[in-house]
Hints:
Layout: H1 2-17, H2 19-28, H3 46-60, E1 69-73, H4 79-88, E2 91-96, H5 99-111, E3 118-122, E4 135-141, H6 150-160, E5 161-174, H7 180-190, H8 198-207, E6 211-217, H9 219-235, H10 237-240, H11 246-264, E7 268-276
Parallel strand pairs: 1-2, 1-4, 2-3, 4-5
Antiparallel strand pairs: 5-7, 6-7
Helix pairs in contact: 3-4, 7-11, 9-11
Amino acid sequence: MVEAENKAVSTASAYYDSTDADTFYYEVWGGEDIHVGLYQSHDEAIFDASSRTKATMAGYIEGLNENSRVLDIGSGYGGTARYLAKTYGCKVVALNLSKVQNERHRQMNIEQGLDHLIEVVDGNFEDMPFLDSTFDVVWSQDAILHSEARSNVISEVSRVLDGSGQFVFTDLMQSGSAPADVLQPILDRLQLESMASPDYYMQTSQQHGINEVRYDEMTNQLVTHYTRVLEETETHEAKLKQSITPQYLDNMKSGLQRWIDGGNDGHLSWGIFHFRK
């Protein structure tokens, strides 16, 4: 199992550090975020919908203010960290595997005058380099699926949260009734052996002393989001091919269609979790 866990970590790191992946996510998502958006219409801009996800999730957190200590795990380009720092004045530590993304993140923090509030840390959320009870809030968006040691991640979240800390996150998951063979193409694409389900996160979090406050299931937003990403990829494909290999784009398009089909068929799940220690 340890070998599988390490493989998942190294696979995710290598993928997001690649030039193709970095260029694709930076260009298609608008340079701030890499997560599922919340859409008010089926033709809304990805950037706007992704921004709405951050604002919606922040609204789940009780007492978020300039004194809050926030940890964002799997922080990508840091759009969430900048949003929280700018909107609430809180200090954010952003933990992320990809050194390429982290360099973009640090540069954008400087450009937006927020580097005094945000610390970007190169690291792995299966083994967090922080002391116990360090944070009031742990936040994550569509990142934990890349781990094959999700129980370790939840255990680490519990460890670094203080006595009344809150955990707010989203993830790409399988539904409770999804047949294993149906998910295999998606797992192969991600080079994973499994996906979590909403029930898994609820049960595992409780085992580690984090109790459910609410879970809002929004799989329809997953379908809309990946439909929009596929549309944008196809619309701008000629331009994207100037800096991204055709093979990467072909693989991306087929992968996006699998997410869309899986969501429509009821085999995938996505939503917002709020837990409290």
